[in-house]
Amino acid sequence: MGEEIKKENVDYIVKTNYGELLLELRTKTGLNRKVFAEYLKIPYRTLQDWELGNNPMPEYIYRLIEYQVKMDQYFQGKDK
C-alpha cells in the first residue's frame, strides 16, 4: 500500500535536535538571541531553552521559523 517505513528514517527524526538547527539558523541571520526572539515574537527564555537543549523544540515550530526566515530574506532581496 504505502512506502515501508525504515528504522533509520525514524531514528533520524527522533534524534534530530531542532534546537541546534535553530541555533545554526539564527547564526546565519547574524542576529543575537535577544533580537532574534523579538523578531520571532517569542520569549527570550523559550529561544534560549530550545538552543541549549533544556526543552525540546517541536519540529513543526522549527519548520515554521525556517520558512519565515527564508521568506523574509527572499523578499528583502527583491526590494534591492
Instruction: Kindly state the number of beta strands.
Output: 0
Largest sheet: none
Question: What is the average per-residue confidence, as pLDDT, rounded to a whole number?
Answer: 86
**Number of helical elements:** 5
In what range is the share of β-strand residues?
under 5%
- Assign the structural class, choosing from mainly alpha, mainly beta, alpha/beta, alpha+beta, or little secondary structure: mainly alpha
Helix-strand string: HHHHH
Q: Give the uncertain stretches in residue-range form.
A: none
The Cα radius of gyration reads 15 Å
User: From the 3D coordinates, which CATH architecture would you assign?
Assistant: Orthogonal Bundle
In the CATH scheme, what's the topology name? 434 Repressor (Amino-terminal Domain)
Specify the CATH class: Mainly Alpha
Commentary on this structure:
With 80 residues, this protein is mainly α. It has a single domain, classed as 434 Repressor (Amino-terminal Domain) (Orthogonal Bundle). It has helices spanning 7-15, 18-29, 33-40, 44-52, 59-79. α2 (18-29) crosses α4 and α2 (18-29) packs parallel to α5 (59-79). The radius of gyration is 15 Å and the shape is globular. The protein starts with 6 loop residues before the first helix and ends with a helix. The mean pLDDT is 86.
